[in-house]
Amino acid sequence: MKSKASAPGKVILFGEHFVVYGVKAILCSINKRVTVTAEKTSERKISINSQIGNLILEPNKLISEINSPLKPFYYLANKAIKNQDTGIEIKINSEIPLGAGLGSSSACCVAGAAAIFRLFEDVSKEKILELAIEAERTIFENTSGADCTVCTYGGIIEYGKKQGFKKIEDEPNFQLVIANSNIEHSTESMVSGVKTFVIKNKEEFSKLLNQESKLVEDVLKLLKENNPEELGEKINQNQKYLETIGISNNQLKKMIEIGQKTSFGAKITGSGGGGCIFALTNESNVEQSLKEFKDKNFECFSAEIDFKGLNTF
Ligand code: PMV
Description:
alpha+beta; 9 helices; 8-stranded mixed sheet; single chain; 2 domains; Ribosomal Protein S5, domain 2
């Protein structure tokens, strides 16, 4: 018997970094997916197969002793077969660029949890999300769970440290052009760089927090209106705040410049220092925006909001 599940990647539309200091962030899932297939095997082994490599191990190993990006899958499979006399073979197929802040690891954890656990029982989305967050903690101990949440439910969510998650029911009709700097970045070191900025610039940062908070509240209203021009202005404004806290660099600035010229607005998505930027477009400017990025040799693609979230087969 085989079980199959897929989950989408994500972008942070507004509020990265400021969310660490209590402002709400807005995330949306995108129509680029990870698909995971799981199958029971008679041999009691956990075997994981992916585009980035393979991992074959006996069950019951200590998670801390496994040094592989595929560790979350091992964690999930091991948990699932604890009281079962079976092994598991897992195959992963991903359309989401790795390590670019587009939620590839969260989508893996969500699709992995669903494919693996549904081999044994009918599991609810809530339970799958809980398992996915547990699995993601094996690689990102401090994850807020926001990425796994948006990958599970799809669409747009707001997330605040105090408030938790809320699904936004609006379904605005825009397209994102996502460009990848291909510069590796570490979320941890970017977050610690911002912390240094905060310590050195207390007053300025407190002003920025108020401005970002107001901007996010404005955006929550704007999403209902499907008005890309006004949303684009907010995106550009958010980018200015991100530049002030020092998470941009020359390469990202070049990309933002192309994005802002060819779309309604463009900003970094995620921790910055590398990774991706996105530009807000619709059918009137998506092709032109993609062309400009490609002409300047930037890796890019267009994406729509995914409203489905986790899908099981
Ligand atoms: O680069 P990403 O997609 O992992 O996003 C990090 C978001 C931050 O706000 C910078 C950190 C966080 O934990 O919220």
